[in-house]
Write a structure and sequence with these properties.
Number of helices: 14
Largest sheet: 3 strands, antiparallel
Number of strands: 8
Structural class: mainly alpha
Order of helices and strands: EEEHHHHHHHHEEEEEHHHHHH
Helix content: 40-55%
Oligomer: single chain
Strand content: 5-15%
Number of domains: 3
CATH superfamily of the largest domain: Intergrase catalytic core
C-alpha cells in the first residue's frame, strides 16, 4: 500500500486507497496541509499502519451526546431494570449531557474527561457520584469502540476520584433498644424492627409479602422489592441472585410479625372492600404500598423529637451487620444475610469493625497456643 504525494501551493498532500465500499467502488483518503513532503510521508505511514491493523475509523461529526442518547434508548434500556435506567438517565441529563454532550465523539480525549471530573468535584459532587458518571461514560465509549465509531476507549486511561471509606452510620445496642421502645406504637414500627433484626434493605421491607414469610420455620424470603420509577411505585424482582435470598428470623421477630398480622387483619375486616390487599406486610392504612419517602420522614421526625443520634434508614441495616460482626459472626454468613454479591463488599463496607475483630482473633490464637506454659517431654511431645 502506497501513498501518492503532490504539492499544492506551498503545502504537501497525499492520497491513498483505503479499500472498497459495499458496492465495490474504490474508496480513497486524501489529507493535506503539510509543510514538507516528509511530514506528509509520516502522516501517510501512520494512516497505512492503522488501516493494516484494522484500526482506522472514518471521521464522523457524530457527537458524544447523540451517540449516548441512542445507546441508552436502544441498547441499555433493553438490558437493565427500568429503575436503574431512570437513575442513570437522571445523572446523564443533570451532568453528562451539559458537560460533554456537545463534543464530537472522535475528539474526546482523556484530558477533557479528567477535567470534567475535576470540575464536578469543585462543584461539590461526591467522589462516589462521579464514579457513577465514570461508569456510564466508560460503558458508552467501550461500546463506541466495539462498534468501530472510535479507535480507542480513552476512559481506560482515566483515574476517577477515590472514594474514602468513611465509617458507616450505626447505633449502639442501647440506642437501638431506646428507639424500638419509642416507636413501638408508631405506624412504621414493623419496618424499623425488620431493618434492625434482619438487615433487609428498605425496598425489600416495603415489598415483603406475607406469602414470603414462613413464621413456622422462622424464615423470610426476599422475592420482590419496591421501587419508585418516574414518581410511581412499582414492584420488581431483586437485582441479583444473591439479593434473592432467605433470612432466618428470631422468636422476637416472629412474635412482632404475628402481632402485626393480627392488627392488619382486624383493619381488613373493618374496611372491607375499601382495603386494597396487595398481601404486603408493611402497607398504608388502605393496604396500598408505602412511599419510600414517607418512612424517611417518619424516622427523621422520631430522631429529632427524642434527640437521638442522626441516622438514615439504611443505617439500621448497617447497625445490624456491624453488631453481628462485633459479636464474632462469620463475615461470609453476614454477607449472605445482607444479600451482598461477594464477601469482599461486606468486609470493605464494615472495615471499621475489623480492628476489634483482629484483636479478638489475636487473643484467641494466643490462648489456643499457650507456648510458654506448655511442657515438653524428652521426645518433643507436649505433656
Amino acid at each position: 500500500m502506497k501513498g501518492h504525494y503532490y504539492k499544492r501551493g506551498k503545502s504537501w498532500s497525499f492520497i491513498i486507497d483505503i479499500g472498497k465500499d459495499h458496492t465495490g467502488k474504490r474508496r480513497q483518503k486524501q489529507m493535506g496541509g503539510f509543510k514538507t513532503k516528509k511530514e506528509a510521508e509520516l502522516a501517510c505511514a501512520e494512516l497505512i499502519t492503522q488501516i493494516e491493523k484494522n484500526e482506522y475509523i472514518e471521521p464522523s461529526k457524530l457527537t458524544f451526546g447523540e451517540f449516548l442518547k441512542d445507546f441508552m434508548e436502544n441498547h441499555v434500556r433493553l438490558t437493565i431494570r427500568q429503575s436503574t435506567y431512570e437513575s442513570q438517565i437522571s445523572v446523564i441529563n443533570k451532568h453528562i449531557y451539559p458537560g460533554l454532550g456537545h463534543l464530537e465523539l472522535q475528539k474526546i480525549t482523556p484530558m477533557i474527561i479528567q477535567k470534567f471530573y475535576s470540575n464536578k468535584l469543585r462543584e461539590g459532587l461526591s467522589a462516589s457520584y462521579i464514579r457513577i458518571m465514570h461508569a456510564i461514560i466508560s460503558k458508552t465509549l467501550k461500546t463506541a469502540t466495539e462498534w468501530e465509531l472510535i479507535s480507542k476507549n480513552v476512559s481506560t486511561l482515566l483515574k476517577p476520584p477515590r472514594v474514602e471509606n468513611n465509617d458507616v452510620e450505626v447505633w449502639t445496642m442501647t440506642e437501638i433498644t431506646q428507639f424500638l421502645s419509642l416507636t413501638k406504637n408508631r405506624k412504621f414500627y414493623i419496618a424499623y424492627a425488620l431493618a434492625i433484626f434482619t438487615g433487609m434493605r428498605k425496598g425489600e421491607i416495603l415489598g415483603l409479602r406475607w406469602r414470603d414469610c414462613d413464621l413456622d420455620k422462622g424464615q423470610i424470603r426476599i422475592r420482590q422489592t419496591l421501587y419508585k420509577v418516574k414518581g410511581a411505585l412499582t414492584f420488581q424482582e431483586p437485582k441479583t441472585r444473591k439479593s434473592k435470598r432467605s433470612i432466618s428470623i428470631s422468636e422476637t421477630v416472629i412474635s412482632i410479625l404475628k402481632k402485626h398480622r393480627a392488627a392488619q387483619n382486624e383493619l381488613k375486616l373493618k374496611l372491607g372492600n375499601a382495603y386494597r390487599d396487595h398481601d404486603l406486610v408493611v402497607a398504608n392504612y388502605n393496604g396500598n404500598p408505602v412511599d419510600l419517602g414517607d418512612i424517611n420522614r417518619d424516622l427523621k421526625y422520631v430522631i429529632s423529637k427524642y434527640n437521638l443520634p442522626k441516622i438514615k434508614f439504611h443505617g439500621l441495616r448497617h447497625t445490624h451487620a456491624t453488631l453481628l460482626l462485633q459479636l464474632g459472626e462469620n463475615p461470609k454468613v453476614v454477607s449472605e444475610r445482607l444479600g451482598h454479591a461477594e464477601v469482599g463488599i461486606t468486609l470493605n463496607t464494615y472495615s471499621h469493625v475489623l480492628p476489634d475483630m483482629q484483636k479478638s482473633l489475636a487473643d484467641n490464637f494466643e490462648n489456643a497456643i499457650q507456648i510458654e506454659n506448655a511442657s515438653i517431654d524428652k521426645k518433643g511431645k507436649i505433656l
